[in-house]
Design goal:
CATH topology: Spore Coat Polysaccharide Biosynthesis Protein SpsA, Chain A
CATH architecture: Alpha-Beta Complex
Strand order of the largest sheet: 3-2-1-4-9-6-10
Largest sheet: 7 strands, mixed
CATH class: Alpha Beta
């Protein structure tokens, strides 16, 4: 069985598109929905994304493959680890965050890596900034994005770049401003957030030294988004925007 899951709190900007990018390759997709942030940082602010709209988008993207779970987890690790109780027979579990679009063919490659007899595998990510047309291209982050519950070797595998494509396209800072502003207050690295980052870097679309927590890091440059993401992303309402408002 091939399963996938999303640990979800907000994400209407890209949830439908993220799930669409893997839906043909999985047998079931589980949404682990939490009504508050589970990254350890708490806020009294109301999340801009409603449960009803998130569920609507997930249903539209996945249909009968969707299993929606409502939970009340205090920590992100707890939320993510709960996946095992809902897909006990899975041979492969893909980790699909709500703001990550999988490049064409990437899910198949991750599933085929099951033959390597490893427990997990990491995939390369491209970090988009304020639009579909700028991204940090030198930040070679490889987050864990597939789990093989029956694998014997504990050390993670790494999916090679293959001329930089396909990758996981992370749209974490290519979202509408109200979500990014809210994200600051629920993020696991809230204590490390650079003072004035949202006003001076994000809102001003500063493309130099623009990482929210690390200094002298991230200098986004122009990209052709369709070199990395599925062609259907050209249908996204933000695709032609110079800056996402």
């Amino acid at each position: 069985m091939i399963a996938s899951y999303t640990a979800l709190h907000y994400g209407t900007d890209y949830l439908y598109w993220a799930l669409r990018s893997i839906r043909d390759d999985v047998d079931q997709h589980v949404i682990l929905y939490c009504p508050h942030g589970s990254h350890g940082a708490k806020t009294d602010r109301v999340c801009p994304d409603s449960r009803a709209e998130l569920q609507k988008q997930a249903q539209l993207a996945i249909g009968k493959k969707l299993l929606w779970i409502d939970g009340d987890w205090s920590y992100e690790h707890e939320q993510r680890e709960s996946i095992y109780q809902y897909v006990p027979d899975a041979d492969v579990i893909l980790i699909v965050d709500a703001d990550e679009i999988w490049g064409t063919g990437l899910a198949k490659r991750m599933i085929e890596a099951y033959r390597m007899n490893i427990r997990t595998i990491r995939a390369p990510v491209l970090e988009f900034w304020r639009s579909f047309h700028y991204a940090e291209q030198t930040n070679l982050v490889f987050p864990e994005r597939a789990i093989y519950p029956h694998g014997m070797h504990g050390e993670p595998g790494y999916l090679p770049l293959d001329n930089n494509r396909p990758r996981i396209c992370h749209m974490g800072y290519a979202k509408r401003s109200e979500i990014v502003e809210y994200k600051q207050h629920t993020h696991g690295h809230k204590g490390d957030w650079r003072e004035g980052w949202y006003e001076e870097k994000f809102l001003k679309n500063d493309r130099y030294d623009c990482h929210p927590t690390n200094v002298a890091f991230w200098h986004p440059t122009p990209v052709n988004p369709l070199d990395y993401m599925p062609s259907f992303m050209a249908e996204h309402p933000y695709f032609n925007l110079e800056v996402i408002p």
